[in-house]
Write a structure and sequence with these properties.
Strand order of the largest sheet: 2-1-3-4-5-10
CATH class: Alpha Beta
Radius of gyration: 19 Å
CATH topology: Rossmann fold
Number of domains: 1
CATH superfamily: NAD(P)-binding Rossmann-like Domain
Shape: globular
Number of strands: 12
Order of helices and strands: EHEHEHEHEEHEEEHEEHEHH
Strand content: 15-25%
Length: 288
């Protein structure tokens, strides 16, 4: 039975993996967060991985407060770069494989067609820079690593755009949402399923290291996304489109960050649902 270490287990993706793990009884899962295992502590990581004989690390831990990162760049780098180095080095020492989650924010958003993995990276924010540097360091210190870039993550857990829209949609008669930032939402339940499929594929066939993109299928703006959320929940709140310039934020977001998923679908044989289908499933689960 292979042992899978999940870091950042109390976040959206970690909780989605915890939920799905009940269907994967052929693995032993170790769900940890900072209270159990501080990945900024390299010695603690080395000891933990040796004691529990870890075969795979799925790194869901990250600093994700995009705007706050502009003022806390050192802390952001500590978690998204330095701790990733620790994980990579500890995994290499233990001969373990790593699946690491990254972001569409490594791109500057100037493309007009979906980004492929080999496209030029040029992060425009402190958060994006930290995740990009984490990618580079992991590749340098850990040869057996899969990096999965994702976008617009949401779930039943924690705070995210969908839950914010559902709350505000009940409280207000009208909401303004930017329409000129284009991407694809990703339901964390689908991403968790993809990660577990990669684990199974790796055990049955091979672990195909490299960088991959994963989001749900389809394309939308935040405005389109908000409209669909309100529609599916049958809320009467009016959603109005606005320009990014009319909703200034501390950090610069990529205006276009649609990810091409062809590589991960081909290499790992994944089928990816459309974002509207996944949103329906998530809202149905909230209703239940």
């Amino acid at each position: 039975m292979k042992t899978i270490l999940i870091t950042g287990a109390n976040g959206q993706l970690g909780n989605s993996l915890r939920l799905l793990s009940k269907q994967y009884l052929h693995y032993r899962f170790l769900f940890t967060d900072v209270e159990v295992l501080d990945i900024c502590d390299k010695e603690a990581l080395l000891d933990y991985m040796e004691v529990y004989e870890v075969d795979y690390v799925v790194n869901c831990a990250a600093y994700t407060a995009v705007d706050k990162a502009e003022d806390e760049e050192v802390l952001c780098l500590t978690i998204n770069r330095d701790a990733v180095r620790n994980l990579g080095e500890a995994a290499s020492a233990a001969k373990a494989k790593v699946i690491h989650i990254s972001t569409d924010y490594v791109f500057d958003g100037t493309n007009s067609i979906p980004y492929v993995e080999s496209d030029y990276t040029c992060p425009m924010s402190a958060y994006g820079r930290s995740k990009h540097e984490g990618e580079l360091i992991l590749k340098a210190v850990c040869p057996n690593a899969v990096i999965v870039r994702t976008s617009w993550l949401y779930s039943e857990f924690g705070n995210n755009f969908v839950k914010t829209m559902l709350r505000l949609g009940k409280e207000r008669n009208e909401l303004n949402v930017v329409f000129d930032q284009i991407g694809t939402p990703t339901y964390s339940g689908d991403l968790a399923s993809a990660i577990l499929s990669i684990l199974d594929y790796s055990e049955e066939k091979e672990f195909i290291r490299g960088t991959y993109h994963y989001s749900n299928e389809g394309v939308c703006s935040w405005y389109d996304f908000a409209l669909k959320i309100v529609e599916l929940k049958h809320l009467s709140c009016k959603i109005s489109p606005i320009d990014t310039k009319d909703y200034p934020t501390r950090a610069v977001r990529p205006q276009y960050s649609v990810l091409n998923k062809g590589k991960i679908k081909k290499k790992y044989g994944l089928t990816i649902p459309h974002w509207e289908e996944s949103l329906r499933r998530m809202i149905a689960r909230l209703n239940d």
